[in-house]
Specification:
Layout lengths: L1 H13 L49 H5 L7 E6 H13 L5 H12 L1 H7 L3 E4 L4 H7 L3 H13 L9 E2 L11 H8 L3 E2 L9 E9 L3 H12 L4 E9 L5
Parallel strand pairs: 1-6, 2-5, 5-6
Antiparallel strand pairs: 3-4
C-alpha cells in the first residue's frame, strides 16, 4: 500500500493533474480540482424532473419533454447543469483529459450515490462508442466515468454488454425527431440474452434521452427488467 502511494506521488510530480474546470495544474497540489474552481460546476439541485432529472424552475413532477412523450428507460439523474460543465466535458471527450474521470466519479458517488443505491443495479453499463470513433479517440469517456463510480461504490462495470453497431451522426447536429431516427438499431448485444435484471446506463451528457431510450430498448429486448441512467451533465428542463 505504501509503495502504491509513493508511486502515485511520483506520477503526480511527473504528470501533474489538471483541473477539470480551468485546465491548469491543480492548486493545491494533491487535490482533484482547484479550490477556487469547485463552485463553478453547478450541481443540479431540487426541483428536478422525477424521470430524467433535469433541473426545473418550479415544483412539479416532470419536465416538458417527459410530459410530452414516454421514455423507454425508467429514471435518471445527472450531476451538473450542462452550461456550467460544457467546456470541461469537451476536453474530457476530445482533448485527452482522462484524469477528469476521477473527479467526476468522486462527485457522482457523493451526490448521486443515494439514487444509485436506490436503483440497486446489477451492473453499470457505459454507453458505447462505435469502434471507428473509439479508435480515433483512444478511449470511451463514458466507460472511464463508469469505472470510477464502480470502484467507489463496489458495483461491477460491464463495458462488453452493449455494442454500438452504427456510427451515428453526432446528435448535437440533429433535432429530436432526427435523433430518434439516427439511433434506431444503433446498439447490439453480442449475447442471446441479458442475465442482469437491473442495469444503470452511464454516459457523459443527457439531452433529449434518445440515446438512453435506444440503449434501454436494446437491453429490455434482451431481458433486462429495469434500466436507469446517470450522466455527468444534462440540459435544463425549464420551460
Amino acid at each position: 500500500m505504501r509503495k502504491n502511494k509513493i508511486m502515485a506521488a511520483a506520477l503526480q510530480l511527473l504528470y501533474p493533474r489538471r483541473c477539470p474546470v480551468c485546465d491548469r495544474i491543480v492548486q493545491p497540489q494533491g487535490e482533484k480540482i482547484c479550490t477556487e474552481c469547485l463552485r463553478k460546476f453547478k450541481l443540479i439541485t431540487p426541483p428536478w424532473c422525477m424521470q430524467c432529472g433535469k433541473k426545473l424552475s418550479e415544483e412539479r413532477e416532470y419536465c416538458r419533454d417527459c410530459m410530452s412523450g414516454k421514455h423507454i428507460y425508467d429514471r435518471g439523474r445527472s450531476l451538473y447543469e450542462y452550461d456550467s460543465a460544457v467546456k470541461s466535458l469537451y476536453r474530457f471527450k476530445y482533448a485527452g483529459r482522462r484524469e477528469y474521470a476521477d473527479f467526476y466519479g468522486e462527485q457522482a458517488a457523493e451526490y448521486l450515490g443515494e439514487f444509485i443505491r436506490a436503483v440497486k443495479p446489477d451492473a453499470l453499463v457505459p454507453v458505447p462508442l462505435h469502434r471507428k470513433r473509439l479508435a480515433a479517440r483512444g478511449y470511451n469517456q463514458a466507460e472511464l466515468f463508469a469505472r470510477e463510480i464502480g470502484k467507489r461504490m463496489g458495483i461491477p462495470v460491464r463495458a462488453d454488454l452493449l455494442v454500438r453497431v452504427r456510427n451515428t451522426v453526432p446528435l448535437k447536429q440533429l433535432n429530436p425527431k432526427e435523433r430518434q431516427n439516427n439511433l434506431k438499431k444503433a446498439f447490439h448485444i453480442p449475447r442471446n440474452d441479458v442475465k442482469l435484471k437491473t442495469i444503470l446506463l452511464v454516459d457523459d451528457i443527457y439531452t433529449t434521452g434518445s440515446t438512453m431510450d435506444e440503449a434501454a430498448r436494446t437491453l429490455r429486448d434482451a431481458g433486462a427488467e429495469k434500466v436507469c441512467f446517470v450522466s455527468i451533465a444534462c440540459g435544463s428542463g425549464i420551460s
